[in-house]
Amino acid sequence: MVAEVCLGKVGAVAAREVSRFAKNSRDWQQLVEVCRVVDTVLIDQETVYAPRQSNDRLLLGLKGSLNEYELDRLRQRSVEAPHAKARRGELLITAPVGYIKTEEQRLEKNPDRQIVCPAPHEYRTRHPTRKTSANISLTHASHATCRPGFSHLSR
Fold first, then answer.
1. pLDDT beyond 50 at 150
2. Scanning 13, 69, 88, 129, which has its CA 20 to 30 A from the CA of 36?
3. What is the topology classification, in CATH, of domain 2-88?
């Protein structure tokens, strides 16, 4: 399309929202400038813009800037959304081993006995005073608790 506009074969470019043609302000300004040079009008659902007229160029520039702001704001919100869910305690990316996500996005213990690992409960009941992760891993290994994918370790 841009090549056709540059060659002057297109007299008008129509779209529902013309500022959506470009990803950023520089591309948009370049398209408006090319349309100005070859005398191609831009048409959207509101009006017809003639880039050779300074008022229309000003309006097109504002539309492009507002569009870029909207896109930037959408990107910013999409980055902030997971952080906000995490602050509320609603962010679940994947369920930890031994748990499943419900339809309400809550965690529940997995009903499959081959996946649920009883080691944390056994560890607390047998060694209530130990707190280091090294002790936990040694205790898990010595009691040969069940692990997903390692059914031969179960008692």
1. no
2. 69
3. Rossmann fold (3.40.50)
Q: Residue 53 — left, alpha, or beta (φ > 0 → left; ψ -120 to 50 → alpha)?
A: beta
Tell me which residue has tokens 């043609």.
21
Nearest to 114 by CA among 145, 153, 143, 148: 148
Digit-coded pLDDT (tens) for 23-76: 777 888 888 899 999 999 999 888 999 999 999 999 998 888 888 898 899 999
Q: How far apart are CA 120 and CA 74, in angstroms?
A: 42
- pLDDT per residue over 123-143, tens digit each? 555 555 555 554 444 444 444
Angstrom distance (rounded) from CA 152 to CA 144? 9
Q: What is the largest CA-CA distance in the chain?
A: 84
In the chain, domain spans: 2-88, 99-153
CA distances from 55 to 59, 111, 146 (A): 6, 68, 74
Cβ burial of 61 (10 Å; 0-12, 13-18, 19+) is middle
144 pLDDT band, cuts 50/70/90, is very low
Residue with tokens 């047998």: 126
